[in-house]
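Posting for a labmate who doesn't have an account.
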Amino acid sequence: MTSIDKCPTELLHLIFSYACTDGDHTARSLSAVSRYIRDCSQPYYNVQSVALHGTRQTLAFADTLEKNPAHLGQIKNLFVSSDSADGLDVNNGKKPEGRSVLAHLRLQFSPRMMSMPKQSRVNGSDSDLDFARALFGILMKIYSSLKTMTITFDCSLRSPVEMADMATLELPNLTELSLAYHAPTDAAFDEFIFKAPLSFPALKRLDLTGLTHVSYQFTPQLCGRLGKIAPNLTHLHIPTTMALANFRKGMPPQRQQGATPPAADINHLSPTIQRVLIALREGGVENCWIPDWGACDCWHCELSEVSFDDRIIVVPGRGTLTWEKLKNRLEVEWENRAIGGKGCWNERSVASWPYDVL
């Protein structure tokens, strides 16, 4: 046993908390000294990808960020779901079927491994508002390093008032965001997206195919709002239902080389937009009357009109998925993007439009 192995664990943790601030280089070098030192230095490895399932894990991780060294604030890839992982114990070291090796990068942030915040233990709350506030707390700690994020939120909030006290959210280095959301009404989402002070200046890719609304009547206004929140957006992925809700009004005119830039419209996406992928919905087969009447307003033909813009392409959707399967699919895509894959942005699988219904 080396002399350093005789040091109390508490003293080593204190030393490592100051020494291991260069990502994971020093921590991994220390791990080669001995098994004892490796065990002491392992908590200080730089963690870049974290997946959280459910309000309890999200609250626990938010609490950990408040107490632990600043190295945990260097997270680049974050997956957060309001739903717990049914039957999946993230502490047992088993690799979930169909998941990539990135799953091993998850931290052990289950209630078994760390104490829950006192407030949660007292009232036993697992509410959506607790989840939203915990998520905001996490983002306030890692906002400067976060680059890719996926959120799945099965929301029961009915009143927009419940979202009114959320703080300003600015993520200066976020480049990719995927969102799956559904709720009994659209009120809370609309209140948040249209009125909350949001700023994602570096956002390039936005996936909204998991967004489920009762009504898509505000699609043009949403495009305009996205133009302000994400002024450098280049890629957008949307569901068929959103594409059919006057989405064309949200597309800015195409820039012509050497021509004067077109005037901006309040309901336009950013003029930086290069590609819009429309996820073709499954089923919904309707008769197309063009061969007989020369005109038709079926969703096939309407979508053909939308995709007339060469920046817009129709790709196969994910099919009819339950919320649980959609969440799992999004997590797999998030993992794939975090290791450099294409995720949901694969344009090679363009649908044979307009006659293929997947």
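Reply:
Got it, the structure tokens are right above this. The radius of gyration is 23 Å.
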